[in-house]
Amino acid sequence: MLNLQGKVALVTGGSRGAGRGIALELAKAGAYVYITGRNAGSPLEKGVRTLEGVLSEIHSAGGSGAAIRCDHTNDGETEAVIRQIAAEQGKLDILVNNVWGGNALPIESIPFWGLPVAHWDNMFNAGVRAQLMTNYYAIPLMRKKGADAGKLIIHTTYWDQYGYVGNFYYDLSKNALVRMAYGLSIELAADGIAVIPLSPGWMRTELVLDSLNTDEAHWQEVGELQSSESTAYIGRAVVALAADPEVMKLTGKPQQVGSLAEKYGFTDIDGRQVPVFKIPQ
Questions:
Q1: Which of 35, 90, 104, 233 meets the CB 3.0–4.6 Å disulfide criterion with 229?
Q2: What is the pTM of this model?
Q3: Is 53 left (phi over 0), alpha (psi -120 to 50) or beta?
Q4: DSSP 8-63
């Protein structure tokens, strides 16, 4: 197993989906993992995953971390998270910008003029801007002199060089995250901080499983999910990037989880190397 002992990580939007998978894999690799999100609560509240539930999973797996309730659309709460990490750890090595409010409305594949304008607030304010402001407060701590080398910022997004996802706002917001990572990669190059937009494939998030009336124990019975991947798969990609001493060679360049599995040799939880997901054109 790759060793991230001594590393401090922050995963925003860590109560479910990709955030949960990433947080668990980072903790299993030895990092101390902070997870944030709006859904604190008991370990499982009315059937919905919570921060406390994920933290319990981290501890059960032998890892260490802390849960901080945070609405990342509130800049003061985001700043408070970074202040707490600075006070408790004095550094931040790995930042995973995963918070996302874009699923508040159905993401339909219909023309732009037929879509609700509310998608802008959901995807840009609660998604793109929330990630931008986390960077704004976290980067000074990550640039702190005397801290460990090998810093990494990840933006979870969706990227296909030639594909259009079919929803104007979703495509625009996800590509905005790619461009944000590119700009930061240039500005942080001298600090040795790699900034990478990371694109998963067809993930079996709780939302996806619920929409298909199944769960993680029975997904193989559903035809639409045969080429899907668990949320641990993107987590293993983040761990591999964080442990790579030459990760700066990838900074600013969009990466796909399936390609990184081939590069670094990791597999999904069922032993498969799930290939890169391609949008049908």
A1: 233
A2: 0.94
A3: alpha
A4: EEEESSTTSHHHHHHHHHHHHTT-EEEEEES--SSSEETTEE-HHHHHHHHHHTT-
* Tokens representing residue 230 in the block: 């668990």
d(CA 131, CA 138): 10
For this structure, is 170 an active site residue? yes
Of 34, 158, 170, 233, the active-site residue reads 170
CA dist 79 to 20, 97, 156, 171, 174, Å?
22, 14, 20, 28, 24
Helices (H), 147-230: 168-187, 206-211
**Does the pLDDT of residue 133 top 60, yes or no?**
yes
Task: Domain ranges for the chain, please list them.
Answer: 8-264
**55-75 tens-digit pLDDT:** 999 999 999 999 999 999 999
- Residue 167, pLDDT above cutoff 60: yes
CA dist 266 to 29, 35, 56, 123, Å? 13, 24, 25, 31
β-pairing verdict for 255-256 and 8-11: unpaired
**Which listed CATH number (3.40.50.720, 3.10.590.10, 3.60.130.10, 3.30.70.3040) goes with 8-264?**
3.40.50.720
Signed CA dihedral, 105, 230, 78, 64: sign only: positive
Q: Which two tokens stand for residue 246?
A: 């030459």
- Give dist(CA 119, CA 167) in Å, integer: 10
**Which residue in this structure is represented by tokens 């910008």?**
97
Residue (of 33, 83, 85, 22) closest to 232 by Cα position:
22
What is the token pair recorded at 3?
A: 């060793």
